Amino acid sequence: MGANYAASVAPQVEAEKKGYQQVLWTIGEDHELMEVGTMNLFVHWRNEAGEEELVTPPLDGTILPGVTRDSVLELTRGWGEFKVSERKINMKQIARASDEGRLLEIFGAGTACVVTPVSRIHFKGKDYAVPLDPSSPESQAGPVAGRIYKALMDIQYGDVPSKWSVPID
Question: Which UniProt keywords apply (predicted)?
């Protein structure tokens, strides 16, 4: 029974009527980010300290753990190219980062979609554009989301060796 997702149907229909594809779930007065649709949420940005960071909300009992979430975290930590964090992040921080040009990309990750980019967020009457790939305007995903997708697909299809998969002869 899909009861854990039943409450999301009406807001999803309302979002679609307004031209959006998904709902960004927040909680509390500070609009702490939770999930996008039924996916785990990832924000790639330059944080307030000026560090390049990939951040996802922590597993605190309100967000379901997932293999894809864990895979994204392990892959990106393994790259060693930017800080990877599991911590709280809210819409005020996202709005400010967008206004200041520090937002690099946002995407959801989950079993069915693997990785799906977010191109804009509507919050308190304003649309915040989320960059995809400035070096390739026709791109449908940002460079980190695209790289994660390719890495996961390469592993899934056995195109690259991985401790996550075992070849069977």
Answer: Aminotransferase, Transferase
